[in-house]
Amino acid sequence: MIKSRKTSDSDASQIAAWIAADPQDSGATKADFFLPSENTVAKNFLYAIEDEQGPIFYVRGENVLRLHIQFAPNERRRTAAAVAEFAETMAQGAKKLGYSELIFESVYRPLINFLHKRGFRESTTEHIMDLR
Amino acid sequence: MITSKRVRRTDQEAALVADWLAKDETHQALGLTIDDVFAPNTLLDLISDEKGPLIAVRTHLALRAAMQFRPESRIRIVKAMPDVLKWLQQEAKDTDCTEIIGRPAPKVENLLGRLGCQSFTGQVLGV
Question: Which pTM was predicted?
């Protein structure tokens, strides 16, 4: 049986110790990442998960916007111009709504390269659970 | 200058998007259907330039979860993970998210795979 509770500053030292003991962590993650702060956006959630023996996970969740794109056929030049403008508008809109990132999946290399020039980066280790 | 219009399944523009999808060999090979385009908790926007519609953008919310595990507690973690995922799924659904996304450490990738997670290569923009 697990239970969850919101994290607080009293968890800081334990989180820091766990991160320090984690061989997968490159040192980039700080304990603050799992703690509430003035900068924490409203949609984030920060929890400690406990089993019968005590805390076993710390979890940080944030809302991100998933994109799926369908292009009109045979309009490559017009589409490229529109995508450039759209990507910027979309990023600004998502930020205003409190989302932390845009993410999409594509096998179409020209689109990927095009958007990498506009700030997108490849993330090869994503895992997804579909809730539908 | 581009413009954007929200499109619902009953709007006439839905037929245009269905036509684009039918002509897209990559999306056909992936098995995408118009039902996916208008899935629950999904929004569809049609982007147009001065000459007309060009891009259909489907958006939905996902919960990005990052976890820090207790060190040297593999058995407890494996035992708790199914319940943790169930809890996380409910939290995500309660905020209208349709997916949970994460970048797990290699040591838990297999476990998450057995619990129904699939790997993919994302293209990400932090905002």
Answer: 0.88
